[in-house]
């Protein structure tokens, strides 16, 4: 039973939450969080076996949650429409959308950072692929899901930003001792996240005088097996002196998806350990 939020404004009992990029590091946390507050889930991502295994995990953690999974490619308008239609067919509505799908260049141990070269050498195909998933994908996914929300005139859409959409990446933290060629967080990531904030504000304003609310959640560096050098470099740039844990955004996603944030739209909830306040 999901009782922790029962009877509070954070209660998601019976609400339908659609999550893109659901099997990602944070996507999975968002799914577990929404289920823990009582939501039913429709989850999309590129890999069906990862989706099925997440579905099993949610069934163990939150047995009252109804969970549907479907392969989703956010760069494909038909695929976006199809998962929105799945929500309608099963539940007749979408209460909240968490748009977590992204190409997010990672720097944890084992990541292939060879393509994260100097700005002047950034491959055009990486630029275009990122724009396609991170911006065009957000546009297509929002089109498909807002169309369903328009029928009820209410719902909450949550885009995922980054501290690097608000300030430029501090490239010093990507420099490793003894490394001949430095790697860089690519320009296109900042461009996409800044663009998503624009889409957040555009859509919030567009849905004026409705109860369709559009907000952004801005996480920052989540620890995921990073080496000590990187983790220390990153941590030194934050006020809290550490990277975040992946479960530290669970409360925020429940807040944004639920009635607890009912007077919030066009806003950006920044959870970055103080990175952008320094
Ligand atoms: N992890 C972090 O440190 C961090 C920090 C700040 C912001 N963010 C943002 O939070 C969000 C979630 O991050 P994450 O750590 O879970 O990222 P992740 O890379 O672990 O997961 C992203 C997911 O998106 C999916 N995806 C990629 N292309 C897709 C497509 N075309 N269609 C459908 N799904 C697709 C991937 O398969 C993956 O499961 C992202 O928008 C990311 O940019 C993450």
From TrEMBL:
Record flagged with keyword Flavoprotein: no
GO MF: oxidoreductase activity, acting on the CH-OH group of donors, NAD or NADP as acceptor
InterPro entries: NAD(P)-bd_dom_sf (IPR036291), SDR_fam (IPR002347)
Entry-linked Gene3D superfamilies: NAD(P)-binding Rossmann-like Domain (3.40.50.720)
Oxidoreductase is among the record's keywords: yes
Keywords tagged on the record: Oxidoreductase
SUPFAM superfamilies per record: NAD(P)-binding Rossmann-fold domains
Domain of life: Bacteria
One Pfam family matching this protein: adh_short_C2
Family indicated by similarity: Belongs to the short-chain dehydrogenases/reductases (SDR) family.
Protein name listed in UniProt: 2-deoxy-D-gluconate 3-dehydrogenase
Organism this protein belongs to: Nitrosovibrio tenuis
